[in-house]
Amino acid sequence: MSSRAGQKQASRAVRDYIAREKRRTRTLWATIAAVAVLVIAGLIGWGVVASQNSGGFTPPPGAVENGTGIKVGSGPVQIDIYEDFICPVCGQFEQQTGGTIDQLVAQGKAAAVYHPVAFLDRASSTDYSTRSSAASGAAAEGGKFREYAKALFAQQPAEGSAGLSDDQLIQIGRSVGLGDAFAQAVRDGKYKPWTAHVTDAASGDRVNGTPTVRVNGKDVQPTTQAIQAAVG
User: Which residues form the Thioredoxin-like fold domain (predicted)?
Assistant: First the structure.
C-alpha cells in the first residue's frame, strides 16, 4: 500500500509540475504578446509624431528647399515677399510694386521668394486665405504661380466677405492656362498642409503682418523705392 501511495504521490507531483510549466508558458507568451503590442503601438505613435514634425506636407514644384515659399528667378539678391491673398494692402503692394520685382527678376538682379501665408482666415467666412494660398501652390505645380497670384490679386475679394469660391479659384486658374490637374488639386485641398507650413514658418521667422518684404534677410519697406535701393 505504501508503494502504491508513493506512486500516486509521485504522479501527482509530476502532474502538478506539468500544470505549473503550462501556466508559466502561457504567462510568458501573454507577456511577450503584450510587449509586442506596446512596441508596435509605440512605433506607430512615433511614425505619426515624426510625420507631424516633418510637417506632413508636400511642397509644390518651385518651392525653396525648406518648402516655405515659391522661388522665381535666380539672381544674386533674394527678395522675400510675405503676402496674404485677402490682405488689401498686399493687393495694393502687388499693383504698385509687383511689376518692379518682376523686372528685377527678369534682369537677373534678384530672385523673388513668395510666401503666401494664411494669417487672415478670420477675415473671411470660408478660410479664404488658406484656400487661395493652397490654390497658388497648385498653380505652382502647373508652372503658373506668378500669373495666378497676379490674377488672384486682380480679383481680390473684400475682407470680411466669404471670399472667392473654389469654382471661382479654378476659373481664375483656367484663365491663366491651368487645366484639370490644377482644378482637382484645388478641390482636394492638396496644398492646404503646405499653406499651414508656410504660415507657421513665417510666424517662426517673426513675420507679424503682410505685406512683409525682406532683402537678403533684412526687413525693408514694401515700396518700389526701398526695394530697388536694397537690391542695388
Answer: 75-226
Do residues 149 and 114 touch, judged by C-beta distance below 8 A?
Answer: yes
Q: What is the pTM assigned to this prediction? A: 0.76
Exposure string for 88-127, b = 16+ CB within 10 A, e = fewer = eebbebbeebbeebeebbeeebbbbbbbbbbbbbebbeeb
Tell me which of 40-54, 56-70, 81-95, 99-113 is least confident: 40-54
Find where cell 500500500 sits: 1
C-alpha torsion sign, points 186, 165, 129, 170: positive
- Domain residue ranges of the chain, discontinuous segments joined by +: 1-54, 70-231
What is the Cα–Cα distance from 46 to 115, expressed in whole angstroms?
A: 30
CATH 3.40.30.10 fits domain 70-231: yes
**What pLDDT sits at residue 47?**
36
Q: Determine the average pLDDT of the residues in 134-163.
A: 97
Grid cell digits, residue 51 = 510625420
Find the angle CA(49)-CA(55)-CA(116) to the nearest 5 degrees.
155
- Unique residue bearing C-alpha cell 533674394: 78
Average pLDDT over residues 173-187: 98
- Residue 2's alpha-carbon distances to 7, 8, 9, 58, in angstroms, are 9, 10, 10, 83
What are 11's three cell numbers?
Answer: 504522479
